[in-house]
Amino acid sequence: MLGKTFRGGVHPDECKHYAPHTVYEPRGELVYPLAQHIGKPATPLVRAGDRVLVGQKIAERDGYISSCIHSSVSGTVKTVERRATVMGAGECIVVESDGKYELYPGVGEAVDPDSLSPEQIIARVREAGVVGLGGAAFPTPVKLEPKDRDAIEYVILNGAECEPYITCDDDLMRQKAPEIVEGLRILLKIFPNAEGVILIEKNKPEAIAAMQKAIEGEEKMRIHVAPVKYPQGGERAVVKVVAGKDTKLSQLPADVGCLVDNVATVYAIYEAVCRSTPLFRRLVTVSGTAVRTPGNFLVRAGTSCAELLEAAGGLKEGAEAAKALSGGPMMGIAMASLDVPLQKSSGAIVLLAEDEAEQSETKLTECIRCGRCVHACPMGLSPLLMAEAALRGDLQRYEQKLYGLECISCGSCTWVCPAKRPLMQTFKDAKDAILSARRK
Fold first, then answer.
1. Do 287 and 309 form a contact (C-beta atoms < 8 A)?
2. Which residue positions in the chain have pLDDT lower than 70?
3. What is the DSSP string of 192-243?
4. Against a cut of 0.85, is the pTM above it?
5. Region for 417 from its dihedrals, namely left if φ exceeds 0, alpha if ψ lies in -120 to 50, beta otherwise
6. Average pLDDT for the chain
């Protein structure tokens, strides 16, 4: 029996081409941006000429909302300089790999999580540089320290993976279900009054079966099978579907008794706590209509996106990549070049033979006020009114009357718009303008 769903949402073509992951080892230099998480960039601990090992901390977190960074290879630091990144450009540590993959002392050592207090668990997660791997890259230790731990009723593992093309979380759940469940058990030690719920969309029957088997005998855990609808993986949608609670404006899931983490994040927590292994590699999907052999890869952070595309067979014969995305086609970030490094938050590289956004520009008309965007918005906003205010430059109305900053940039409104209005981009520009004015 399927669980309840959230309001709004859309049904884009899934375009998922599942394949069990393969391990890819990088060549040459690895590039580690200091800003690959929400919050302040990390501060480098190394300089040119230093030798580093796998799992060694090479950058320290700078403040409460920040995250440290670890080397994914052994080798020599070439430089610390500004390089192109997925987000544009920023300071990066560049390491020349020696191909030996020598481990930093202590990395990989087994630890019994039952021997650790909640505070020690959080400290290990913090030291491992774990961030949200569902795309947001929010430092995970911050989530694990809400005002009142005892008030958390649900610890929810988000395995929805609702973006088209992406299948790395599906693969992770199939291959590493016992480890993910152990990660959930660790979280329930921090939040003793909570129930553990693993939300998975029904289009992943093998993952559902693997996770169901892994939780056998666990009294405080259950699987929640959700209908297939985008953006099911949105944090507020997850809370509504599992807990039946609405997250009011400016509230966090913890304010309504919920903690939500992506399944890959919880696997990283397991690795950090039980295997003394920092977050320096992850599963990544390479897919899209222009890719020769779509698949999943276990990749070390800092690997070139262009290099990983080669591992997937490159482009189809005669095909060109009209658009390259870090992430999926709904919420992914357009990349001007693939000569940028994979970051902690890089769950997918999607290359499309046609740029639908560019094609839509040729069909653009005035808003016909059909209301489809209002019906599709999972946040209950009024995109057509928000667009009018933003385009007039009335940012005060956009923010204070229309609650425009509550937009989660899911792209549902843009997807359903028959007038082909670039609504999501309009809202991103408005948000940037508002936040820029605040900083000034």
1. no
2. 1-3
3. TTPEEEEEEETT-HHHHHHHHHHTTT-TTEEEEEE---BTTTSHHHHHHHHH
4. yes
5. beta
6. 94
